[in-house]
Amino acid sequence: MTMSPIESGSAGARQRRVRRTAWTVAAIALLVYLLFIGSGVFAWRGL
């Protein structure tokens, strides 16, 4: 399958989906970051 924006005919929808995926990844990364801080991983990492 070839990935071309003209093939789907809706580049806007694809861009919106990519943006939503980026926001989801950012939210998950932020959650993991907060979990790391909460568990005190940076405490022994700073040693």
Taking pLDDT < 50 over at least 5 consecutive residues as the criterion, the unreliable ranges are none
Roughly how many Å apart are the termini? 50 Å
Structural class: mainly alpha
Which bin fits the share of residues in helices? over 70%
Largest sheet: none
Shape: rod-shaped
Query: What radius of gyration results from the CA coordinates?
Result: 18 Å
Number of domains: 1
| DSSP helical segment count | 3
**Mean pLDDT metric:** 80
What is the strand content?
Answer: under 5%
Subunit organisation of the chains: single chain
Number of beta strands: 0
The SSE string, one letter per element, is: HHH
What does it look like?
The chain crosses the membrane at residues 21-44. Keywords: Membrane, Transmembrane, Transmembrane helix. This protein is mainly α and 47 residues long. The protein has one domain (12-45). 81% of the residues lie in helices and 0% in strands. The longest helix has 29 residues, at 11-39. It is rod-shaped. The model has no long low-confidence stretch (mean pLDDT 80).
Structure summarized in a few sentences:
By secondary structure, the chain is mainly α. Helices cover 81% and strands 0% of the residues.
Topology:
Blueprint: H1 5-8, H2 11-39, H3 41-45
Key phrases:
mainly alpha, single chain, 47 residues
